[in-house]
Amino acid sequence: MLRLFNTLTKTSDEVRPIEPGVVKMYTCGPTVYRDAHIGNLRSYLMADWIRRALLAQDLQVVHIKNITDVGHMRQEVLERGEDKVVAAALAEGKTAEEIAQFYTDRFLSDEKKVNIMPAHEFPKATDHIEGMVEIVEELIRKGLAYEVQGNVYYEVSSFPDYGQLSGNINEAELLEAVRVDVDPLKRDARDFTLWKQAEPGRILKWSSPWGDGFPGWHIECSAMSIKYLGKKFDLHTGGVDNIFPHHEGEIAQSEGFTGEPVVNIWTHGQHLLADGVKMSKSMGNSFILSDIEAQGIDPLAFRYLCLTAKYNTRLNFTFSSLKAAQRGLLRLRNMAWQWSMLPSQNGQNESDITEWYGKFMDRVNDNLDLPGALALTWEMARSDMPGQAKLAAMKRFDAILGMDLDSAERTYKVPQEVHSQISDRSDKRTKDDYQNADAIRSALSEDGYVVQDSQGDTRVRPKTDWEKREEAWHSFSSSVEVPSLVDEPDATELTIGMVACNYLGDVQRCLESALNWVGERPLEVLIVDNGSADGTDKWLEEKAATEPRLRVIHTDHVLGEGAAKNILLKQARGKTVVMLDTSVEISGDIFGPIDDALGDSTIGVTGPFGLRTNDLHHFHDGEGESGFMDAMQAYCFAFRRSRLKDVGLPRETFRFYRNLDLDYSFQFKDKGYKIVADSSLPVQLHEHRVWSALAEGERDELSKKNYRRFLDKWGDRADLLISSDHDHSHHTH
Predict the structure, then answer these.
(1) Mean pLDDT, rounded, for 97-122
(2) CATH of range 289-410; options 3.40.50.2300, 3.30.43.10, 1.20.58.60, 1.10.730.10
(3) Which CATH class is domain 475-724?
(4) Which residues, in sequence order, are CB contacts of 471 under 8 Å at separation 6+?
């Protein structure tokens, strides 16, 4: 029987159904005011594998997964307009309920793409307000909660076991864990909200014995789990970020209401990291499933990747590891395809299949050891069992793994004319006419088919989207994968460098204007396509085919700004490097004046848009002035390539572009180089779409984080400011 780590008991506990033969399971579902990111999906995959493992042991599973819709605690986020997509929807006249339904549908679609079995019920918080009010009333009646001015709070001190799930068992730990502004209406800062009074102007609110208001976050799961599964059920799943305060509050509410423990086993999935750090919108690494699909990668490759680590250990997501998972998935699927074309054995090797399946289930039942189960799948696939028996075993394994491994039988369909070409090719091979046979194979490859020869047999299948993309161009997953040419000698006079990420029209305008004014100078144009998904990548490849000076480097997803700039600088080969933002349009010769300015060996960086400061805390632009500056804005940032050996590359901790130019400017100043602006350079600025695409709250948050990074390193270096340098007045342009 399946054993799972129980967060409550801190032991591995066997799942023993309260009702014989039926396991009742509740999963904390999504908050539907934005797309679920892939870290959320990892938690839902864990619940899916638990359910499949139980079903494989002839148990019935009743699975409930709630929907926290926007009419709930997140309504205030909508009303502040902090999410630009949601703000735009509201501006179009869509209601909060319509937005919630939109993201609910997206969530259900994403679950289907990664082959998560749908829950039996998806109850919405807004449909269960009455049940929440009933529980709150009972908690007040029992003396476990109190009302103040229309707000109802759970009195933590009245529940002695509060903190048992998270381990935050003393008052200091709980206060530290809560980390919220103290509500003066609470008797104790640890107390949490069960019902909140509606503030003036709130649209979505409900009547209650305490006045119009809305429920607290934790109460929804207590109400819905008890309604659909009863006052005692077997399993409750979620992510580790749910443990405190959400699940801790849920235990207090539910047990306070029923008078006894409600859940037997609490199981939590660990974080999915992205490039080594926790995923968050502010870090720019909160990937959603469409980011994976945009690279032509099968969403089930993400499911495969999650199989490679135990659910209760952290998993580091990178696009390199995802591509490795895609290759593994494709290999297993192709094996199943190959075995499916063998003649049936009519039940032979059944004992071998049963033995393999027994070993497989031993891994699964050992706290859902799916990495072990996946390794055993590969071991079985490489065994000397006949292919037909391997296919039978793999199908039984895949009922739990859920990777749709036998889909090749359904999806690897090709037109009859392709089969005719394969037959013609086989005839030519038989007659040793290999030249024409190879020509047929090449033609089929160009048409999007893979031809595989084996002993006495030829198979043909359509190429996957990922294979087509990989053939079109190579793409990098991180700056580390890109070789550095910094120590190589200059190969040309000038590198014009850009980082492109969507907004094709801007890329075209910037590129064409630069080429129009570069003259006859020997140069290269180096563009890093930073995970574009709007056709920019294809256009750049087509442009490079007709423009020999253009070189394109692709990344398979949107890297942070620092990493993308590093790729560009590692690969640049021009004596002078001019980095341009795609919002820029060149309207005259900027390259001659730039070269003249950099002829002074004391000058590190030049460009038209300088910045000045008196205290490192407030930078302002040069207001059309020329001369020495404290920093150069990244719209046009030029320097000698040889300086890279001394100055180094930009810091990759700057994932967002804002203030990276300040930081990199100070790297030059720290090495003794001056920064000079020439405001006469003919450069026109257009809308900066990366900035304008963000909501105001997001702009502020991302900018402030980067500014703190800047100050943490340079905050005590006032000696680098031009106000401290008295030998600069002679240098103007």
Answers:
(1) 95
(2) 1.10.730.10
(3) alpha beta
(4) 463
